[in-house]
Amino acid sequence: MTDSRIPVHIRVSDIKNGRIHTYKPEDDVGVENALIDSCAIPLAFRTHVSNSPYADGGITSNLVDNSIFRDPTGNVIAFSFPRGAPYQFSDVPTYLMSLASTAIDASVEEARSRIEAQGGFVCELPNEYRTFDFRDALEKGLGDEHFAATKRVIRAKIEEALAYFERADRKLNLETDLLRVQRFTGEMFERIMKLFPFGVSHCSISCIAQSLETSAGADGLKRDRQIKDLRIEAKGASLIAFRVGIGREELYELGKDIRWEVRDNAGSKLSATHGVIESEQNGARVWHSCFVLDAPLPAERAPVRVRLMTSHVGIMKELLNGGSEWMRTVCSQDDDVQVQDFVFAYPERSGTFVMTDLLDNYHRATQKPDNLEGMRKAWCAGEKMNESDLEQYVNGLLSLSDYAYIGWRCRDMQPKSYAGALIERAS
Predict the structure, then answer these.
(1) CA 103 – CA 63 distance, rounded (Å)
(2) In angstroms, how far is CA 18 from the centroid of its own chain?
(3) 119 — alpha (psi -120 to 50), left (phi > 0) or beta?
C-alpha cells in the first residue's frame, strides 16, 4: 500500500479485539492481502479456524474513515447495491448466514445515511445477487456482458454525482453540512459560494474620526472607527453565505475586535455565524470577514444589509498631525460591485477636510499606498458626493449629530479593480 499513487485506506473488522481496523497508506502490506481481509465474509471465506483475526469490514462499519468527514474540501462518492430479500433460515448454518447478512446490511444502511447527510453522493449499482449467492455471482456475475453493463452504469453514476456537486440549487443539511461550512476554511467558502451565489450591489466605507477630538479620555485619545455597509443580493434562489474584504492590515483584522449585524430588506435582524479567513491574493495576504446565515434566506428577502464595524488604533493620526490619510478598497472577488462609497465623518470643531481621488493625488499622501502599479492598471475614478448622497450615512449614524460628513463615490466598479480617496485638511 505504500507504493500506491493515491492514498488508500482499507477497512476491516478485527474479530479478535472486537473493533474496526484500518489499513493505512503507510502500512507495509500488499493491497491484495488487505482486500482479502476486507472481503472475508464470516462463515464463507473465513471461520474460527483461520489464523487471521480479520474479517469483512462491513460487519463493524461500511463507512470511509471518519477523517474524511472532517475535511470540508472533500466530496464523498460511495458505491453500494440495493438491499436483497432477507434470508430464510431453517437450521444453524442458514441462521448464522442470516445473522451475518443482517449485520452487514444494517452497516450499509447506516453508512448510506451518514454519507448522504454529510452532502455526499451514493451511487447505487444494479445487483441481483445476495451476500451468500456465491455460485451465481461467480458464474454469471463475472461474465463479459454483465461486466460491460456494470461499467456503463458506474460511468453514468459518477457523472450524475459530479453534476450533483455542481448544482447551484443543491440544498445543504443544516444540521450536518452547515456545521462544516461554519469552520470558515477558504476552500469550503469557495465551494459554498458556488452553490449559493451572491452579489454585492453597493458597498461603502465610513471612517468615524473620533481620534480627531481634542479632548482625551482615561486611555488617551478616543479611538476612531471604520464602518462598512454593504447590500448583498441573492443571485440564486436563496442566500446562505457571503464574505466581505477587510482591507488595510490592522491589529483587529484577525477577528478580535469586530462588531457586525445582518438585516434583511425589511429590517429584521438575521442570525449568522462570523469568522475571518486569511488567504493570499497576488502574492499578498488578504483577509475576508465571512458570514454563514443560520438558515438559507429566500431571494425575495434580499438584499440583506451588512454592517461591519471595526476599531482602529488611531488610524487618522496623520490628519491629527497635519498630514493626509487615505481610504482604499480592491474588489477582490468575482462579483459585481456597482458602487463604492468612501465617507469620512469628523467632529466639526476639529477643522475642515476634503476628499479627492487617491490615484490623482498619490504624491500628496503622507504614507504612500502600496501596489501603485496595480492601482494604475485597474483604477476606478470617482466624484465628490453631495448632501443627498451622504444623507443615508447621516441618518444611519444619528448619534453623531455634531459631526460633519464628506464623501467620495466610485461607480461601475469591476472585479479586481481599485478605488480610493485621499483625505486632507482644507487650506
Answers:
(1) 14
(2) 38
(3) left
How far from 271 is each of 254, 274, 326, CA to CA, in Å? 21, 10, 33
Residue 369: pLDDT over 80: yes
In 3D, which of 65, 63, 59 has the Cα closest to residue 131?
A: 59
Residues pairing with 42 in the sheet: 46
Here the cell at position 188 is: 469550503
- Is it the case that residue 179 has pLDDT exceeding 60? no
Residue 363 grid coordinates: 504624491
- Helix ranges, 270-401 (H): 317-320, 372-377, 387-396
With residue 406 as reference, give the H or E element that holds it. Answer: strand 403-411
User: Could you write out the DSSP letters of every residue in 188-215?
Assistant: HHHHHHHHS-EEEEEEEEEEE-GGG-SS
pTM: 0.55
- pLDDT score for 105: 78
CB 387 within 8 A of CB 401: no
Tell me the C-alpha to C-alpha distance, in Å, between residue 297 and each of 183, 197, 206, 267, 271: 20, 12, 27, 14, 11
Are 310 and 225 spatial neighbours (Cβ–Cβ below 8 Å)?
yes
Q: Which residues contact 243 (CB under 8 A, 6 or more apart)?
A: 189, 193, 277, 288, 289, 290, 291, 333
Cell reading at 82: 440495493
